[in-house]
Amino acid sequence: MTDAADLADRLAEVVGPRGVLRRPGELFVYRNDGLPGYSKQPRLAVFPRTRDELVAVVRVLADQGVPFVPRGAGTGLSGGALADDVVLVGLNRLTRILSIDPVERVAVVEPGVVNVALTRAATPYGLHYAPDPSSQAACTIGGNVAENAGGPHCLKYGVTLNHVRALTAILPDGEIVRLGSADGEVEGYDLLGAFIGSEGCFGIALDVTVRLSPNPQAIRTLLADFTSVDAAARATSEIIASGIVPAALEMMDGATIRAVEASIYAAGYPVDAEAILLIELDGLEAGLEADVARVDGMCLAAGARTVRVARDDAERARLWQGRKKAFGAMGRISSHLVVQDAVIPRTRLPDVLAVIREIADRQRITVCNVFHAGDGNLHPNIGYDANDPDEQARVHAAMREIMAACVAAGGTISGEHGIGLDKLDYMSLIFSEDSLAAMCRLRDVFDPHHRANPGKVVPVHSCREWHGAPKAAWTA
Amino acid sequence: MTVPASAAASPAVAQDASASTTPSPLRPSSAADVREIVADAIAHKAPLRIVGRGTWLDAGRPVEVIRQVSLEGLTGIVDYTPGDLTLTARAGTTLDEIAHATAAHRQWLALAPWGGDDGSLGATAATATAGPMSGALGTPRDIVIGIEAVAGSGELVRGGGRVVKNVAGFDLTRLMIGAWGTLGILTEVSVRLRALPEQEATLALRLPNAPASLAEFVTRLRSAPIAPLGMEMLSSGLAARLAVGQEHIVIVRLAGNADAVAAQRAAFGALGDVLDVRDSAWTDLRTTEPAEATVVRFSSTVARFPEVWLAAHRLAAAGDGHVHASVLRSSARVVLPHHDGSPTEGALELLRSAGRDTRIFERLPAALWPTLAPSRAVDRLSRGVRAAFDPHRLLNPGILGETLA
Fold first, then answer.
1. Which of A49, A245, B88, B344 is most buried (CB neighbours < 10 A)?
2. pLDDT tens digits, chain A, 476 residues: what are they?
3. Nearest residue of A to residue B299, measured between CA atoms
4. What is the phi/psi pair of residue B380, to 5°?
């Protein structure tokens, strides 16, 4: 049994009294992450300011055997950073960029560094950090590592996994380990690869060595507008099959376009379109125009009304702003929102999008699609009113049907948002009990007592030696 | 399927673990067969050596086991929809077969590992073998999107899937890649493909001889406005063997549409007197190694790369071997032919006294592994991972240099 007040006092000795939140009112703001619909109240929240404080905090928690949830900026979309009556470890104060080496093209950062802040710091060297989740203005590198975050430009440049060279982590028992190497290849098991995307269940990164990418010599951003989602989906499949690898290939449907255009993020999208594609081509200047012409031709052949190319950086930034803030703009449509993250084979886009439309009609719900079409990474957004139990039930049924359709098409249940709490129930759609049990055993290697982010990623019943996610045992 | 029933029934295999004769390998033709083999191995506590197609058996540390599992019969492309640019094949499928199938749709699997295309997809993934394109196009870690394997525990497990982006569950795929079969026997592998470039060209340029000019030259190579698929420095002997030059040279593989290739050709040409070289030089480079050789790879930082190249040269010279180095990955690879089963004494001397470079041995005489290449998979997490997936230590025991309890 742990006395919460005693533990708070011990943590306050490490981080100072202002670094620990213990009153329910103070903790209320940490009840949610980026996905409305789940609320879990932490028992305590602790905010270390330095690496040493973070190490000491984890060791106090280990000493007391208390479960905890690491949290970056809380922008995640799977409920992964919610702490249900356990301790929340906030990493958003560890914001130092420790080094940038323009020759080696690497940076070493603390976990709380905001994604876009790193790119901003690398800009003077003509470099950038490639993974660019839509929340990049707020989300942290530590959170990106935990989720193996993607973003529009990972179509060409790869996800977080492809851009992290090494990291130092503290395991839940307080041991500090170095995974990967910034100086070259390492032999042996790819523990770095296993850690990335482990959703905070394997430990906390103390520092992360990331690869920085040279800025492309030239960029062209195209906006193609269509009178049907089907035509835009066919254009996408055509472009991917042609072998051209756009830096990004994003789709937004009519409902999303109109929500964005009605918001402060209005980007100049055609409001009478039923779908747009935002296509970015980059690389060497030479040869780029030829690719632009081919993509333009494929869009027109698929039925695009117009294809226009952003004239300058300002227009390109505006087109991207509309896309990246689309989730926020949907707040105009309804009070609550669920978003899915399934990935399907790219050739299946037209038929799966048609199935989703059919499900939405039948369940009488509103689905907005804004997603990474080039990867086949769908983000059907369903707006609803949480105070309407009937609508909530229909939303829930529709989500299950959509997920099943994506899996039946050969897809997976999450491309970049993670499993968290939100997709736990779907894990058995794609993984056998044996595979889930193997994942549990992998977690046991890093965290034998399941104290880090308990109850997430793998359904508890799949962990054969475990019965129930551990809860903190607080004294009254 | 010829086994495991027959193997289980064979007293020499099943009961006498000290038997010195090696029976013919087990040849599963399905994942179910592999499961039976592993179940049988568990029942008889008889470790397995997984040999893929057996094309490169001296790679990795020696494994002493009675039963070999050949995946030569576990072949075939399971799923290939060209428009998705993904492909799933059984582990024993040769890279040749995949190249043939994908070329018909002007696509390719950009692994191109050292050793050529007669090896299997499964072995390439299991050993994380890369090649001269990996600096630009990625290693198996980047290219493999999903696996199916029979773990040493006997369970059939899957990681990842058949789509290009996937974060569902803990990453069993990355864990199995480069694990040398010690966590599970891969039965199926899914990969992402690329379109073949519209055009390509391979060009060669002489390297400066003076070490000081070399560093500056490498910096110019790295900052040139080109986006090569490969950029490999070759020692003179290797250049001669490949018939692409007589001196130390760098070869680049340029690709793209006609405009892109023309512009890159001009940009590369600005660095010196450029010669056109046949594209097949890249395949030759991958397959030119002697059957009996020690191969060691030095990975380094950008800053130390010229120095590592020179050190690799001294090693190659002492061992009558050759060296090639990836400018994009800052890594050098030395091939030392064997005389009487071993590299020259001079080369061994250098290897014994070698400094802090990150070096990875690919091939080495059996007796030299323990002294020259102590295992790095000995930390608590690595041992835990092994125990979690291969609790009975049945899969390729010793191949990572781990101590056998």
1. B88
2. 789 999 999 999 999 999 999 999 999 999 999 988 899 999 999 999 999 999 999 999 999 999 999 999 999 999 999 999 999 999 999 999 999 999 999 999 999 999 999 999 999 999 999 999 999 999 999 999 999 999 999 999 999 999 999 999 999 999 999 999 998 888 899 999 999 999 999 999 999 999 999 999 999 999 999 999 999 999 998 999 888 999 999 999 999 999 999 999 999 999 999 999 999 999 999 999 999 999 999 999 999 999 999 999 999 999 999 999 998 888 888 888 899 999 999 999 999 999 999 999 999 999 999 999 999 999 999 989 888 999 999 999 999 999 999 999 999 999 999 999 999 999 999 999 999 999 999 999 999 999 999 999 998 888 776 556 667 888 86
3. A184
4. -60, -45
A15 at interface of B, judged by CB pairs closer than 8 A: no
- Pairwise CB contact (< 8 Å): A283 & B227: yes
Six token digits for residue A462? 């799949």
Among the partner-chain residues A162, A194, A372, the one whose CB lies closest to the CB of B170 is: A194
Neighbours of B380 (CB within 10 A): 11
User: Is there a contact between B131 and B113 (Cβ–Cβ < 8 Å)?
Assistant: yes
Tokens linked to A274 = 């039923």
Longest dimension (CA), chain B: 70
Please count the helices (runs of H) and the strands (runs of E) in chain A: 16, 18
Using a CB-CB cut-off of 8 Å, the residues of chain B touching A240 are 83-85
Q: Which domains does chain B have, with CATH numbers?
A: 1-196+374-405 (3.30.465.10), 199-285 (3.30.70.2190), 289-372 (3.30.70)
CATH for A97-214 is: 3.30.465.10
The ipTM is 0.96
- The residue type found at B93 is T
> Looking at the whole model, is its pTM more than 0.90?
yes
How many Cβ atoms sit within 10 Å of the Cβ of residue B353?
A: 7
Query: What is the C-alpha separation between A227 and A302, in angstroms, rounded?
Result: 11
Residue in B167, B395, B400, B113 with CA at minimum distance from that of residue A186: B400
Q: Which CATH architecture has domain A334-417?
A: 2-Layer Sandwich (3.30)
Is there a contact between A273 and A330 (Cβ–Cβ < 8 Å)? no
**Which position has the token pair 């039923």?**
A274
Neighbours of B279 (CB within 10 A): 12
Asked if the bond preceding A214 is cis, omega within 30° of 0, the reply is no
CATH architecture classification, A4-90:
2-Layer Sandwich (3.30)
DSSP letters for A284-301: -STTHHHHHHHHHHHHHH
Give A 337-356 residues with CB within 8 A of chain B: 343-347
Extract the tokens encoding A331: 């707040």
Q: Do B260 and A191 touch (CB under 8 A)?
A: no
DSSP string, B60-77: SS----SEEE--TTS--E
Q: Do B155 and A434 touch (CB under 8 A)?
A: yes
Task: Quickly count: other Cβ atoms within 10 Å of residue A67's Cβ.
Answer: 25
Structure tokens at B139: 């290693």
Domain residues of chain A, as ranges? Answer: 4-90, 97-214, 218-332, 334-417
Q: What topology does CATH give the domain A218-332? A: Alpha-Beta Plaits (3.30.70)
Hey, of A156, A165, A187, A237, which one would you mutate to test binding to chain B, going by the most B CBs within 10 A of its CB?
A187
Alpha-carbon distance of A221 to A230, in angstroms, equals 22
Cβ-Cβ contacts under 8 Å, A427 against chain B = 168-169
Q: For residues B266 and A149, what is the distance between their CA atoms, to the nearest angstrom?
A: 38
Q: Provide the token pair at A464.
A: 């054969």
Which strands make up the sheet holding A248-253, listed edge to edge?
A306-309, A218-226, A275-283, A248-253, A366-371, A380-384, A336-339
| Cα diameter, chain A | 70
Tokens of A233: 């989906």
